Inverse folding.
């Protein structure tokens, strides 16, 4: 299991903003955070259950690609949960 640092999380968010565009990113990813990578699955948190379901349904591949490029570890999908992981 890989725990993403705050810097890695910010890098993932920057990549998603670039890939998806500012309008899409600002609409869906406010309060979004990637916290860990385990067995190729990215664990992420969204600000609400609704946003978690939308992000998971539409953007899980892009999240996995962004995490893979930042961490260098294989990532194939994302599991987006509601609520924010506290560190």
């Amino acid at each position: 299991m890989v725990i993403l640092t705050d810097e890695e999380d910010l890098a993932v968010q920057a990549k998603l903003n670039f890939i998806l565009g500012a309008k899409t990113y600002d609409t869906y990813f406010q309060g979004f955070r990637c916290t860990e990578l385990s067995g190729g699955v990215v664990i992420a948190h969204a600000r609400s259950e609704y946003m978690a379901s939308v992000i998971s349904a539409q953007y899980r591949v892009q999240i996995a690609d962004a995490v893979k490029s930042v961490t260098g570890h294989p990532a194939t999908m994302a599991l987006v949960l509601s609520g924010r992981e506290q560190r």
Summary: The longest helix spans residues 49-71. The chain has a mean pLDDT of 94. The domain at 7-82 is CATH 3.30.300.180 (GMP Synthetase; Chain A, domain 3).
